[in-house]
Amino acid sequence: MTIRVIIVDDQAMVRAGFAALLAAQSDIDVVGEAPDGKKGVEVSRSTHPDVVLMDVRMPEMDGLAAARALLNPPPGVVHLPKVLMLTTFDVDDYVYEALRAGASGFLLKDAPPADLISAVRVVASGEALLAPSVTRRLIADFAKQRPAPRKDQSLQLNGLTPRETEVLVLIARGLSNQEIAERLVLAEQTVKTHIGRVLSKLGLRDRAQAVIFAYESGLVTPGEQ
């Protein structure tokens, strides 16, 4: 299956470079591009991409506002693409808010070309792209600034089994499925099953939102190992 991608970035050279790199892949088709968030939303609504590569800082409408518009569309709009945020900084408050809005992850603009290609494939498959080292810094930094744990979220945690709670904690600490399986001495498929149940019970879209939930509910606090 071909992955349909659009690139939203205010720098023409960045768009051209990313487009050339991705279009050279047999399973990726670049179907559009835009220089700002507002046009990015328009292009996405007309081309129905699987993945939107979205720069964080742009004129007219920034990437955060555009991500919110795409992931929480008005009535009648049924297409929901995966949104992958592009950022120059490894810790960025815009990215944190984008994850809360439902973005599937983020990628540093100076990442190696192979990482960009892999990121598009990972996000298109329905997984969240959260590099463990960056995730820990990002979430820990902003979790410190969040208000006290929300009671409604704390109550939702009561619906999880002890094993599901354990898996959620490890997700929040940035472990991959394979690492969680090794830590808990489980099959990787079993870990995937637990993650699916956690997302379903908590009403979460993907792994990215699970990380945010774990911190905001107080299940995990910054600095814990």
TrEMBL record:
Q: Which SMART domains match?
A: HTH_LUXR, REC
Query: Residues where 4-aspartylphosphate occurs?
Result: D55
Quote the Pfam families the UniProt record gives: GerE, Response_reg
Which keywords does this Swiss-Prot/TrEMBL entry list? Answer: DNA-binding, Phosphoprotein, Transcription, Transcription regulation
HTH luxR-type domain span: 153-218
Transcription found in the keyword field: yes
Q: Is the keyword Transcription assigned to this protein?
A: yes
Identify the domain of life.
Bacteria
The Response regulatory domain sits at 4-124
Name of the molecule in the record = Response regulator transcription factor
